[in-house]
Amino acid sequence: xxxxxxxxxxxxxxxxxxxxxxxxxxxxxxxxxxxxxAAPGHSEDLSPVGAWWGIARPCPANPASDPxxxxxxxxxxxLCPFVPGALPPEVPxxxxxxxxxxxxxxxxxxxxxxHTTAQGSWAADPNGDIQLPGKARYQxxxxxxxxxxxxxxxxxxxxxxxxxxxxxFVVYWDENEPDQMFGFIQPYFFPIVxxxxxxxxxxxxxxxxxxxxxFPALNFLQPLPPxxxxxxxxxxxxxFTIHRIKPSV
Length: 249
Known about the structure:
Elements lengths: L9 H9 L31 E9 L11 H8 L13 E7 L4 E6 L10 E7 L11 E12 L3 E3 L2 E3 L2 E13 L6 E11 L47 E7 L5
Antiparallel strand pairs: 1-2, 1-10, 2-3, 3-4, 4-5, 5-8, 6-7, 8-9, 9-10
C-alpha cells in the first residue's frame, strides 16, 4: 500500500494543494450522461451541465464564515484529518461540466504554483456513501499535471514536472435550485516522477509491449481509497459551494 512518500513534504504539499482543485459529475433525471434539455448555462437546464464558479475551503468548516457547511463536513469526514500545512485557506475554482460526460477544471492555485488544466469525467453516483434527501449526488474523476515551485537556476527560473494530482470530487444538486451546487473534494497527490525528472514506469513486458514501460509504476488511475486520511495518501477534505455561470443575454 502507500507509504508517507506517497505525498510530498507538508511545505511542498501546501503549495501543490493551494494549486488545487476541481470538477464535477452527472444528471438527476438521467438524460443520458450529462445531456440537458436546453442550452448549457440556462436555469431551465435539468442537469449540472454548464460552467461553474465557486470557492473551496478546508474541513472542518469555520462556524463563523461557513455555518451551513459545518454539519456537512462532520458527516463527510468527522474530525477531518489532514496533512499539516497542506490545505490553503481557500481555492477559487471554475469547473466546466460537459454534456459528453467529460469535465474541464481551472483553479486559482495554478497561479502561484503552475499546474495544467484538469481533465476527466463525471457520472451520477446514487450509491455513494453519503446521500442527502432531495439532492442528486454526482462524482467526478479528473487529473492534472503538477509543476514544482519556481526554482532559481542561473539567470532564470526553472519549473519541473513533479507528479499528478487526482481528487475525489462530489457534488449535490437539486433541480429546484439548478444554478447552485455544494459538495466536497478530497485531493490526492501522486509523485510519479523520479529524481531524474522522468516518470517512474513499469518495466518492459514482452507479453504487453505497448503497456510496460509506458505506464507509471504508481498507478494513479486505479480507484481512490475510501475516506480521507494522511495514512491513505489523502491531503485533506475541502467543502465548497459553486454557482452556474450564465450567458449575459
